[in-house]
Amino acid sequence: MKANKGQIERALKAPAETRFFLFHGPDEAGSRALMAAMANAVGTGAERVDLSGALLKGDPARLADEAASISLFGGTRYIVVEPAGEEVVPAVEALLESERAGNPVAIVAGALKPSSRLLKIALGHASALSFASYAPEGREADRLVIDLGRELGLTIRPDVARRIADASGGNRAIIGQELEKFALYADAAPGHPQEISHDMVQAVGAASEEGDLSRLVESVGGGDAVTLHAELLRLSSEGMTGVPLIRAVLRRMMLLARLRGEVERGNSVDAVMASQGKAIFWKEKDAVTRQLSRWRADLLARSIGRLMEAEQNVKAPGTIGTAAVDETLFAICRQAARLR
């Protein structure tokens, strides 16, 4: 069966009532977080059995056997299958057909096509739950940062959360790593909460390690093609390409569009910027002010449309991927240069 967020969260509180969970989708860190939630519900003393898709391909009966087996010490146990793909279909079929399978199974499969046999089996069986994880966006990403931070004893304002989410490209695993770094730096703990400031993010966050997207965003919005080229090369060498770059620039364009609407209703640029308070990081205010003075609402709307189209194209099968992203960013950068 297909589960929504509320259903999967409720099911993971009593995992033994479901024969197997299929965690899939492009956000594999999100899938592993669900798997960790299942492990917590089973209990810290439970026995974990790790299997791989390759192992089950050669021994399909192994999964059902492990799901029906009693722990050596008589306690609870659960089974994790990762990595996994279509090769585990016979093993899953055997699991679902078995008479007894008291131990819950979690399969982490990554992105699956709608035609996937594994996905169809999970969707069509009452004893299975399927949930697709996608990288959080917008307010959902901000909320994720705040919630994960709270678990570590960090108090995070929405504007700071937005900056951390942007710098991490919405990647749950990177967000978690950054927050752990902040907690260590601030000596934070659930019983000893500490607030994260923009200055702390600047000092010890991804930006301090040249890992954020701020220079990319400024180069696109400011029309600096030389810096944009250098940033694309740097980010590519660090494995960051495609959708995270689009979303970082898209957030800036949407911010400018919102503020430009106020300017074109008769408010001055300085007044509009002053009304934002701490919502815009102080080190970014000069660049945002310059860009707000140059960009017109119609051009911002056109750029936002191009960015959204580029994201859809890069996700579609058979496209040219990152090349399309780079082309879109350079096109917007050239438009910005003409506005100088």
UniProtKB/TrEMBL annotation:
It comes from the Bacteria. It is an enzyme of class 2 (transferase). Signal peptide: none annotated. It catalyses: DNA(n) + a 2'-deoxyribonucleoside 5'-triphosphate = DNA(n+1) + diphosphate. Keywords: DNA replication, DNA-directed DNA polymerase, Nucleotidyltransferase, Transferase. Coiled coil: none annotated. Belongs to the DNA polymerase HolA subunit family. The keyword Magnesium does not apply. InterPro entries: DNA_pol3_clamp-load_cplx_C (IPR008921), DNA_polIII_delta (IPR005790), P-loop_NTPase (IPR027417). This is DNA-directed DNA polymerase. The lineage of its organism: Bacteria, Pseudomonadati, Pseudomonadota, Alphaproteobacteria, Sphingomonadales.
